[in-house]
Structures are given as C-alpha cells and as structure tokens.
Amino acid sequence: MADRYWVGGSANWDATAGTKWALTSGGAGGEAVPTAADDVYIDSGSGAVTVTVATATATCRNLSFTSGAGAFAGTFAGSTAATVSGNLTLVAGMTNSYTGTITFNSTTSQTITTNGKAFASSLTFDGVAGSWALQDNLTTGAANTVTLTNGTLNINGKILSAGRFASSNSNTRTIAFGAGSATITGNNATVWDTSLATNLTVTGTVPTVNCTYSGATGSRNILGATTGVTEARCVTLNVTAGTDTINVYYRWIDLNLTGFAGTFGNIARHIYGNLTISTGATLTAGANATNFVASVAGKTITTNNKTLDFPLAFAGAGSWTLQDNLTIGTTRTLSFLQGTFTAGAKNVTLGSFASSGGSARVLNMGSGTWTVTAAGTSWNVSGGTNYSVTPGTATISMTAATTKSFTGGQRTYPTLNQGGAGALTIVDSNTFNNITNSVQPATITFTAGTTTTVKAFTASGTAGNLITLGSTTTSQANLVMIGAGYVNVDYLSISYIKASPANIWYAGANSTNGGNNTGWIFTAAPSTPIGFDPFVKLRSFSDHGRF
C-alpha cells in the first residue's frame, strides 16, 4: 500500500507508469501506476491539467482531489471504467467531465464527499459487507444510473440524485436513508427498480423517492418491491412533475402524484400507506387492482375528484379515511377484505361492493351517498364473521337499470334506496334505517323467509308508476318496523309480504293488494299519530285556564 500523487501533466491515467506518478504532492515522477491497494491524490501539486481515464480501468483505494498541499483545479475526464476500493473526495474547484462508470467495491466502511460537485458518470456499489456513507448531497446526471449490487448505501440524511436507481437482486444490501431522500430525474426508462427485494433492507425516518422529471417524453417505469416483499422493504414514492406516462409497479408506502399531469398507467400495485392522486393526472382504466395493505391505522385516500377506473381492494389490518369523494369505475369492484374503512362525510361511487373472509372488518359508512352502479350481485357480503358496520346517516343507492341484488351479511345499514329501473332483490335478513326509492316504476323483492327490519319505510310510487314489493317465491318474506309512527306510503303493488307489527303498515288508498299478504292496511294512514289522545291535549289546555 502506497500513496500516489499525479504529476503527469495533461495525460492519460493508464497502465504505463512513465513519469505520471509521484510519492508526494508535486514530487518527482516515475512511480508505479496505482493499484487497488494505493491511495491516489490529484491535488494542487498536479497543476491545472486534464487527467483522462482511457484505454484501461483506473484502480485505487482512496481517491481524493485534494491533499494537505491544496485542492485540484483542473479537469478529470475520460470514459473508461474506474474502480475505487476506499473513499472518494471531490472538490468544488475542479471540472468533473468523467463519464465512465465508477465502481465502489470496498468490503469495509467508506465515505463519499462531493463538495457540491456533480458526477457525469454512473455509479455502482458492489462490495460484500461494504458500506458507503454520503458526507453531503450526491448528484449524477439524468442519463446515469446508481446501482447497488452489494453492501450498504448510506444516504445518511442527504439527497442522492440520479437519473435512475437499480437494486434488484438477492444479494445482501441496504439502502439507509436516515432523514434523507432520493431524487430520480430520468425518463423514458425504468427509473427506479427494487423489484427483486430478497435480502434488501430499507431504513430511514421516511424513506422517500422523488421522481422529478418535468417533460413529456416517453414512459417512466417505477418498480417497487415484488419478490421477497415486506413492508420494511418499501419506500414512499412522490411523482412531483411530468406530462409523460408513469407505470408504478408493485409495493410502496405512500404513493403521491401531486404535481404530476401525465398519464398514470393501470398497473397492479400495493400501497402500505396513503394514496394521493393529482388534479392534472389522466388515469388509465383497466382490470389491474390497487391494493391497500397497511398494517397500522391513520392512512388516507385523496383522489382530487378523479375517477379511479380500476378495482380497489382493502386487505390490511390498518385503517383508511377518505379525504374527498371516492369514485371508481362503473364496472369495478371495491373489495373490503380487512381493516377499517371510513367514508366520513364523503360520497362513494362504485360499480359493486364485496366483502368476504374472516378477517376483522369495520365499515364506517358516514353521512354521504354510496352510489352502487353495477347490475348483478352489486353489494355482496359473505363470511360475516368479524364484519361490522357503523351505518351513520348515509344512503346506499342502487342505480343499475337492470337486475341487481343486495346481500348485506345480516348487519345494520343506513338508508337503502332503489335508485334504478332494474329490480332490486334484498337477499338476506338485514336492518336498515330506511328503505326508499328515487325512481318509479320499480321493483323491490325480498328473499322468501328472510326478515328485513326497518326504522322507516318510505318507498312509494306515483299514478301509473307503481313500486312492486314481493317475495322471491310464493312464500312470504317478513318486514318488521322498529321505528315510531305509521308506515305511510302509496302506489304500491304488494304480494307475499308479511308486515309487522300489525296496524301500522298503511299501503295507501292507491296501492294494489296482489295477495298472500299479512299486516298491510290498504288505505291511507290516519292523520293522527300513533298514541295521540286529543282529549289529553284538551285537558291540558283546560288545566291552564284556556277553556
């Protein structure tokens, strides 16, 4: 191991010794070309010259462009590869036009100091058990790639800026962000790739990748973890600019598109944190689902009124709260498999709703309108174990123009509205705040033998446009009122429905008795409320001297 100082003037760093290398700054040349065991200094004693890496790989241990004698003020150039087995130190006053790939292959701890000087080259970190700690921000060009093959890249609270980043293999490696982040400036390529995440460790306060390309050219593929996946091997992704196409694959913590105004591809992906869609993005429709898999509470979804025309699945033990209205495509399904979903005061529009399995699920429906647009089995809850609903004051409006069904898993729901011309079948025994309609004529059918419990029932038709109530067979279905007051409806056609308790279900004077009914009164409801005694009111006035 020895020190080597460049004294060769403007020349090539190559395998010919000549007089290019000295043992001291500005000393006599004639020393051997540096090896991987030697420390190299290109400093003030080298002169304002150009050192070019050409024809052969440059190798050294530490490479520094300063020494005790002073900093280099010349140019480091060339395009042939270089290998650094130790530390690297650039200086602010040098010109760095070197475009070859620099490989860092140490197997121990090293540092990289740039002093604000950008690289024009790609960088590869490939040392088993090696580590490299940034001492300040590191920047390389938009056409260049930083590759982590082995070891630990310690961003160390700084900003790592590169055109592309790649670490997709099964070697033992770590990206240590600290409080730092990565800025990815490239485009029309795979700009981030940690897809093969076996033996990859990601650490940091909030490990964050910012994709900042602001143009319109090509497609950016952004690949999160897929193989060897755990939540701890994922990062937060911010796409802050661009009018190009982005395809975001696999798994992420937060996915935030604020500032992006291009096309967001329909790719299958998993999100452990928050989702934010930008106002300017165009979202590609498709069958690939976005899966929310958070394991902790407090996650949010912000759509900025964009339609997410692809399926959504909630399959983590965490919780999600809408920050604005949620709209997914009319043929898409919201699958609620685990966790807590809270709508708050927001509206939810979807093709269909499905919830199944035995995992704990809490559906907080809030005070908005849930518009269900698909035909067929458009609300389907199965495997009711561990499934609970907080109905709030919401409305579920089933708007399909063709036949649809509501299977609720025998839970309590808010108002159910027959909002489309297609017949609505309520499959099992549930409780509703109200059953009503916003279109007529229409049909509401109850599964024979089931008991539907309501706090109110306000479904009514108009002249010539009846609401048809019936059972799915020639056996009765049950309707039970647990609210106060009469049921006061009209323009119904009713068959095979048993209504209870008796003497409160007034079908209206314009309704039709289709037969096999129990408990219905086919007249208008009395104007006097249930339990009202007019004589009690008269006595009250008299007691106060009014009569």
Provide mean pLDDT, rounded.
Answer: 95
Biggest sheet statistics: 41 strands, mixed
Based on DSSP secondary structure assignment, what is the total number of beta strands?
62
Class by alpha and beta content: mainly beta
Structure description:
- By secondary structure, this protein is mainly beta.
- Helices cover 2% and strands 44% of the residues.
- The chain is built from one helix and 62 strands.
- The strands form six sheets. It has a 41-stranded mixed β-sheet that branches. A seven-stranded parallel β-sheet has the order 36-38-40-43-46-49-52, with no helix packed on it.
- β8 and β9 (70-71) form a beta hairpin.
- It is rod-shaped, with a radius of gyration of 35 Å.
- Residues 532-547 have low confidence and may be disordered.
